Structure formats: C-alpha cells, structure tokens
Amino acid sequence: GAGVSQSPSNKVTEKGKDVELRCDPISGHTALYWYRQRLGQGLEFLIYFQGNSAPDKSGLPSDRFSAERTGESVSTLTIQRTQQEDSAVYLCASSLRNFRVAGTTNYGYTFGSGTRLTVV
Amino acid sequence: DQQVKQNSPSLSVQEGRISILNCDYTNSMFDYFLWYKKYPAEGPTFLISISSIKDKNEDGRFTVFLNKSAKHLSLHIVPSQPGDSAVYFCAASDGTGNQFYFGTGTSLTVIP
C-alpha cells in the first residue's frame, strides 16, 4: 500500500483481556518498528524488526507484550492480560532499511496513524 | 529517564511570525536528529533532519539548528502559517541501537 496501515484504529478492552494490534508496512520496507505514546509522554520504543534478523525487543515493557512479523510483511503486537497502564496510542513505522545505513538519504520512519488502545 | 526533552508543551505564534521550537538532549552520543510533525488522529510525519557534522539544515520555511556543546537543537518555522498548527516531536539517535528517542512534543498553534 501507499502508507503504513494499522488496525484497528481504536480498541476498547476490559482489563485482563488480550488484544492484538496489526501493522501493514509499506511494501518493500524491510525495517518495522513499534512505538507507543501514553498520555503526556513522548514516543516510547517497543520493538524493531529487520528482515530475518532476530528482533530487538529491548523496549518491551513486560513479558505480557510480544510481537511477530512474517518475513517483511505484516506485524502483530499482542498484549496479554491488559492493564490500565497499557492504555496508549500504539504506532507502527517502517523504513527501507535500518535508517542508519551509511550513504543513504535518510528520512526516518514512515508512521501509521496508530491504534488508540483504552483499557477499562 | 527522558533522554530527549521538549520543555515547552505548547506554543502560540501569530501567522507570518517565526516559530521556534526547542529540544534538549542528555546523551552526548546522539549524532542524528529528526523533527516530526503530527496532526490529530494521524501518525507523525517526517519534517527535517540534521546530523551532528552540521550545525544547520534548511528546507524551505523550516530550519533546524544544532548546538552540540549545549546539547540543544531548535526548529525554526518562518513565516508561520495556520497549517503548521500541529504537535512537533524531536527525536535523536546514537547509532548503536535501532531506535530513535523521542521528546514529549510541543503543540504549536499558529493564529491567523
């Protein structure tokens, strides 16, 4: 597609339930990132996928969070046993490769519109 | 620990005047910086970048200045237009990891 697509755009869930968020990156973008933004905070890195390399999970806040990516396509972020502090906008972004490839013109990531998750 | 800080949550500027958005960082290893612009209900979109080998980068009405000794960067928008009203995030990278570190954003309102 022309842009990064995320679904659903909004999700309200009860505390303790599991949720799954989906991201369709731009076709051909090998790098995919998940960030979240909680109210009044900056964007918080969660996880990074690059091709078939092992993902960088260093930003996942707890073991209730996991993410998968099939090849260089769709990614799903799963939050198990949701808590109220998980309420945030979850943003997915993709880029052609790791943005720091030397010699390339870097325009950073292309973000999707996000999924607003509300845990009640 | 917030490594990138935007201490002004909001800013209002008259149309046609200059908007100056500020960003401070704590990690001296940061060497690449971006500004993103975000409208409500949309994802952030890339605006302008600067690497630490430069102290200024200009793109049309947007100029980013980097002061490495002060660990400070700023985004200048001149002349400001009502369509510039959005939340602006600065972000920084140190080249060792796979992420950018983002500030909390500054909401800019350009008054017609």
Main sheet overview of chain B: 6 strands, mixed
| Structural shape of chain B | globular
Question: How many strands in all of chain B?
Answer: 11
Helical stretch tally of chain B: 0
Radius of gyration of chain A, in Å, reads: 14 Å
* Residue windows where pLDDT falls under 50 for at least 5 positions of chain B: none
Structure description:
- The complex is a heterodimer of chains A (120) and B (112).
- By secondary structure, chain A is an all-beta fold.
- Chain A is built from no helices and ten strands.
- In chain A, strand 4 (31-37) and strand 5 form a beta hairpin.
- In chain B, the strands form two sheets. In chain B, strands 2, 4, 5, 9, 10 and 11 form a six-stranded mixed β-sheet that branches. Chain B has a five-stranded antiparallel β-sheet with strand order 1-3-8-7-6, with no helix packed on it.
- The chains are: A mainly beta (120), B mainly beta (112).
- The A-B interface holds A 4, 31, 33, 35, 40-45, 48, 50, 56, 58-59, 91, 93, 98-100, 106-114 and B 2, 4, 6, 32, 34, 36, 41-46, 49, 89, 91, 93, 95, 97-105.
